[in-house]
Automatic annotation (TrEMBL):
GO terms for molecular function: actin binding; microtubule binding. GO terms for biological process: axonogenesis; dendrite development; microtubule cytoskeleton organization; regulation of microtubule depolymerization. Residues 1-34 are annotated as: Disordered. The lineage of its organism: Eukaryota, Metazoa, Chordata, Craniata, Vertebrata. It comes from the Eukaryota. InterPro entries: MAP1 (IPR026074), RibonucZ/Hydroxyglut_hydro (IPR036866). The gene is Map1a. One of its GO terms (cellular component) is microtubule. It comes from Thryothorus ludovicianus (Carolina wren). This is MAP1A protein. Residues 22-34 have a biased composition (Polar residues). Transmembrane segments: none annotated.
């Protein structure tokens, strides 16, 4: 494709080479996210992207986004949600913080993956000052009920 035609095509569809607002390499089928280096961001609450799927979250996310509370909302084992790799990435990322701030993990569903991860990594969680919040309440709405957690800031 000639350079001027390539230029026009990228202007006619500016979002085509963007994944989650980050430029990708259009020459490859695999997107390569290039996130500029910078200081970590501290927040009170962070929702782990994509229902805690391993597609978008890795240890770098947890090194850079430092939250007091992380919400894990995956409940689809067939699609790997929540992902054990993402939960392990939390441990790896937090171990790089250099400060032992309290972190609370809030799963929105009780899944086999989160239960196994909790049991198998409990000692590491304690060492890193990570608490997994179990649901203590149930919300009942007409035909459905679900666990709920109250969070106060």
């Amino acid at each position: 494709m000639p350079e001027d035609e390539l230029s026009r095509s990228s202007h006619s569809n500016p979002g085509k080479s963007l994944v989650n607002g980050v430029k990708t390499n259009p020459a490859s089928n695999k997107s390569s996210l290039s996130v500029p280096l910078g200081p970590p961001v501290y927040v009170d609450l962070a929702y782990i992207p994509n229902h805690c799927s391993g597609k978008n979250t890795d240890p770098e996310f947890f090194k850079r986004v430092r939250a007091s509370y992380y919400v894990v909302s995956g409940n689809d084992a067939a699609n790997g949600e929540p992902s054990r790799a993402v939960l392990d990435a939390l441990l790896e990322g937090k171990s790089q913080w250099g400060e032992n701030l309290q972190v609370t993990l809030i799963p929105t569903h009780d899944t086999e993956v989160t239960r196994e991860w909790y049991q198998q990594t409990h000692e590491k969680q304690q060492e890193l000052n990570i608490m997994v919040l179990a649901s203590s309440s149930t919300v009942v709405m007409q035909d459905e009920s679900f666990p709920a957690c109250k969070i106060e800031f």
